[in-house]
Each structure stands twice: as structure tokens, then as C-alpha cells.
């Protein structure tokens, strides 16, 4: 995923227990409108941050040199001066002086936010490790309990927006562990600190202006506007710009309150968001499939879609051996190459992808929703003997592929579509199964 307005998120993941709730991965800045890019789910980039479960693909410049954070002693004075200058820009964008004054009362430079931004460590998790947490027994049971507790609200949300309640609950589970970890940071303070810091200043300043508009609209109060260190808010972690565009007042009290203990507005806002981007009621996100021997891995591409009947003619079936039901055109996804589970994914996969463009996240939401409905665990085994490549190893793979004549069009440590194409081309050149799996074995072969 990429940083931009309505675009980018921090690739975050963590597996930390939270009481009796399932283990999780950290917050995202989401949902945000952004162009969709396919990213391999075999490696989940991650950062430490408690309980929430979402891998967010963050942009990484080709140069990995990161400027040091501003020293706190200098920042205290500089930040207050920045607020004075920013005030004029905010007022020019429609923020009234009273709203601005109330929002910034007591706001200080927060060095912890900058520390979090600077230390998004490049450790990795494999797709199977991620899914073990995303659809752990406790997360499934907690999801069923949340569904039962809020069934009346969720039934009404499903009826209005046409998005299945289990999907909405699954997003809730991965975003805030069913509301138990919504974030306690002061959003205005966090966004102002990040905007002042300047590393992604334009993006965070836009989010800050949007947050001020939310306050000016009266949806919440300044100190009640809490969320993640990066500004994601509420039960399902909306960024301010996405909140302005897609949040809804489902409770009918005149406010779009995604922060309240009552999750109605937040859950309805998530359903409204998914519906906006074309959710097809009754269509699965994807179905686990079995591939025939000798399957042409070049067909495993999001760009290649066929009806389930056409896939069945090529030997691709559901795990029970029957043809997949006709849910429309689908593509074959191999998140761990030919060594792991295979899925036939449909349009709703791309809709969830608007919430977070990481394949691992989409599979996590989809599979968790299936399990909450009572569906089975993933049947295929994963290559659990493999480990994920480190960031340095992913860069090394890109350099070696390019040097061998298979241009990855950049060395950024992200296993995206261009790198996958290069991997497939290299595999073909060596007579290997061209499944696009960027494994340690492949790196050793390149070496």
C-alpha cells in the first residue's frame, strides 16, 4: 500500500494477547481510498503495536535513509510556532477560529508518536502465521459472541447496506479486536505532531484539517477524538478523510459517532464503505480450491478471470472435488505459491481490498467471516518449514533478479506485482514451477 491522501497505510502487524481476546496485529490508517495494487501475501510486513490485527503495506522509498526525529527540546518550541502558522492554513480551508482554539487547547508535541513512526521495524510474518492469528480459535469465538450480542443492529445494517454482518464483524475483529483496542491517542495531537515532523507532512496535515472539520461538525469533542498514534479512529479505524466521506449516523442521533461504546455507527460506516465500492451481497470473497497436477501457474493471476465452470474444465475444483458454485468470474490466488492453499477469488475480494490492499488482510477478513458463519478451516497445508524473507533479503532478491535480467523496476523491499513477474520469469528460465513464490530457497538459487 502506498501513502497519499485516501491512499496509504502503515504496514502494521503484531501478535500480542489481550486478555481473553485473540492475538492481534497493529492498527492501520484505514479505510482510505487508494488505487489497488496486488501485493504478495506470502510475507506480511509488520510493526509492534498491540492487539489490532492488520497488515498495512506501507510505502518505502528506494532510499531507506530516514531522517532522525526532531529533538524534543527543540520541538516543544518549534511545534507551538508551527501551530500558529498552520492556523492560517486551516482557517483558509474553512475551519473557524473557535474550533481551532478548542481543538488545540493543551496539545503538545508528542515524541512517542514520532518514535512509533520511525520504528516500524522490518520484521516479517508469513501468511500462515498471520492467518493463525486472524482466525484463531479465540478470535472466532469472540466474533461469534460479538455477532450474537449485536445481532439486531447488525441485521439492520445488513438489510440497509447489503453487506453480510459476518464480514462487518470480521473487519471489526481485525481492526480493533471487536472494539477492545480502539486506540487512546489524542488524534489532533498525533496528527499535528506528524504533520509538523514533516516526513509525511502533507498527508498528515490533510488528515488534521479533516479532523478539525469533524470537530466543527459536532460529531465529537476534541479530547474524545481518540485513536491510533497515526490518526485512525474508532471501532473500525477510519482515517479522518474517509470518515468525512463515508461515515454514517446509523443510530439517528445527529452524530456519526464511531468512538462510542455503542458500535452501531462504526459498524454501519464500515458496511456503507464496502457497499460504496461495489459489495455483491451473497457472493463470497473467495473459495478455497484444489488445483490439478500440472496446473499452469501462469494462470494464477488476478488479471486472469474465468467462470467457475471454466476453471472446472481445467481441473480446478472446490476442496470437495465438485465445481465451485457460479459466483461470477474469479481468479486464482496462491498466497504461498504452489506449496500452500489456493483460492478462487471474486469481486468482493477487491472490495475488501479497498479497506486494506494487503492480500493477507483480505484473506484474513474473508476467512474470519467464513469461520464466524460456521465454515471450515483452510484445508490445505502451508509450507510451515519456510520462513519469511527479511527486508534486507527482499531487497537482495530484487537486486539479484534485476542483475540476472529480470528487472523488478526498483529495489524497495516490497514483493509487489513487478517483483512477482520477475520471480515468475526467473523460475521459467530455470525450469522451476513458476508460481511466483518469493522464498528463501529461491533467493539461495539466485545467489
What does this structure look like?
With 447 residues, the chain is α+β, with helices and mostly antiparallel strands. Among the domains are: 74-117 and 183-276, Bacterial muramidase (Helicase, Ruva Protein, domain 3, Orthogonal Bundle); 286-372, no CATH class; 391-446, no CATH class. It has 17 helices and nine strands. It has helices at 72-92, 97-104, 111-118, 127-134, 137-149, 151-161, 165-176, 187-197, 201-217, 240-246, 264-276, 308-313, 347-353, 359-372, 391-403, 417-429, 440-446, and strands at residues 43-46, 123-126, 185-186, 226-227, 286-290, 317-318, 331-333, 335-338, 342-345. The strands form three sheets. Strands 6-5-9-7 form a four-stranded antiparallel beta sheet. The protein is globular, with a radius of gyration of 22 Å.
Topology (elements, then pairings):
Layout: E1 43-46, H1 72-92, H2 97-104, H3 111-118, E2 123-126, H4 127-134, H5 137-149, H6 151-161, H7 165-176, E3 185-186, H8 187-197, H9 201-217, E4 226-227, H10 240-246, H11 264-276, E5 286-290, H12 308-313, E6 317-318, E7 331-333, E8 335-338, E9 342-345, H13 347-353, H14 359-372, H15 391-403, H16 417-429, H17 440-446
Antiparallel strand pairs: 1-2, 3-4, 5-6, 5-9, 7-9
Helix pairs in contact: 3-8, 4-14, 5-7, 5-14, 6-11, 7-11, 7-14, 8-9, 9-10, 13-14
Architecture per CATH nomenclature, i.e. the level-2 architecture of the domain at 74-117 and 183-276: Orthogonal Bundle
Radius of gyration: 22 Å
CATH superfamily of the domain at 74-117 and 183-276: Bacterial muramidase
- Alpha carbon gap, first and last residue: 28 Å
Class computed from helices, strands and strand pairing: alpha+beta
Strand content: 5-15%
Helix content: 40-55%
* Oligomeric state: single chain
Text of the CATH class of the domain at 74-117 and 183-276: Mainly Alpha
Question: What general outline do the C-alpha atoms trace?
Answer: globular
Amino acid at each position: 500500500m502506498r501513502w497519499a491522501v485516501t491512499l496509504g497505510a502503515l504496514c502494521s502487524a503484531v501478535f500480542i494477547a489481550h486478555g481473553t481476546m485473540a492475538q492481534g496485529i497493529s492498527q492501520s490508517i484505514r479505510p482510505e481510498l487508494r488505487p489497488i495494487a496486488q501485493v504478495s501475501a506470502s510475507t506480511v510486513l509488520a510493526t509492534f503495536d498491540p492487539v489490532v490485527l492488520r497488515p498495512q503495506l506501507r510505502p518505502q522509498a528506494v532510499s531507506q535513509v530516514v531522517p532522525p526525529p526532531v529533538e524534543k527540546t527543540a520541538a516543544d518550541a518549534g511545534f507551538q510556532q508551527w501551530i500558529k502558522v498552520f492556523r492560517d492554513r486551516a482557517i483558509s480551508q474553512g475551519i473557524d477560529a473557535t474550533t481551532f482554539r478548542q481543538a488545540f487547547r493543551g496539545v503538545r508535541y508528542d515524541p512517542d508518536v514520532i518514535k512509533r513512526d520511525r520504528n516500524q521495524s522490518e520484521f516479517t510474518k508469513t501468511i500462515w502465521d498471520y492467518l493463525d492469528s486472524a482466525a484463531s480459535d479465540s478470535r472466532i469465538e469472540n466474533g461469534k459472541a460479538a455477532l450474537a450480542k449485536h445481532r439486531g443492529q447488525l441485521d439492520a445494517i445488513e438489510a440497509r447496506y447489503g453487506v453480510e454482518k459476518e464480514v462487518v464483524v470480521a473487519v471489526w475483529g481485525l481492526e480493533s479486536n471487536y472494539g477492545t483496542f480502539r486506540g487512546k491517542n489524542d488524534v489532533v495531537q498525533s496528527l499535528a505532531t506528524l504533520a509538523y515532523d514533516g516526513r509525511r507532512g502533507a498527508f498528515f496535515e490533510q488528515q488534521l484539517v479533516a479532523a478539525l472539520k469533524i470537530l466543527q461538525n459536532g460529531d465529537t469533542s476534541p479530547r474524545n477524538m481518540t485513536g491510533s498514534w497515526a490518526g485512525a479512529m474508532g471501532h473500525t479505524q477510519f482515517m479522518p478523510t474517509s470518515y468525512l466521506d463515508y461515515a454514517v449516523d446509523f443510530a439517528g442521533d445527529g452524530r456519526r459517532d464511531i468512538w462510542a461504546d455503542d458500535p452501531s455507527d462504526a459498524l454501519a460506516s464500515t458496511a456503507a464503505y464496502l457497499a460504496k465500492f461495489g459489495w455483491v451481497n451473497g457472493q463470497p470473497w473467495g473459495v478455497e480450491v484444489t488445483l490439478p497436477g500440472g496446473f499452469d501457474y501462469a494462470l494464477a493471476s488476478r488479471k486472469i478471470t474465468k467462470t467457475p465452470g471454466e476453471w472446472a474444465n481445467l481441473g480446478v475444483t472446490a476442496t470437495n472435488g465438485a465445481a465451485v458454485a457460479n459466483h461470477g468470474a474469479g481468479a486464482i490466488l496462491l498466497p504461498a505459491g504452489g506449496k500452500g492453499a489456493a483460492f478462487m477469488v471474486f469481486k468482493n475480494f477487491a472490495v475488501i481490498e479497498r479497506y486494506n490492499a494487503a492480500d493477507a488482510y483480505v484473506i484474513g477478513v474473508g476467512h474470519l467471516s467464513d469461520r464466524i458463519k460456521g465454515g471450515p478451516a483452510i484445508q490445505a497445508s502451508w509450507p510451515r518449514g519456510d520462513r519469511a524473507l527479511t527486508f534486507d533479503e527482499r531487497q537482495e532478491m530484487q537486486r539479484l533478479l534485476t542483475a540476472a535480467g529480470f528487472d523488478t523496476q526498483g529495489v524497495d523491499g516490497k514483493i509487489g506485482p513487478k517483483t512477482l513477474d520477475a520471480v515468475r520469469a526467473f523460475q521459467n528460465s530455470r525450469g522451476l514451477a513458476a508460481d511466483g513464490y518469493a522464498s528463501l530457497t529461491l533467493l539461495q538459487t539466485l545467489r
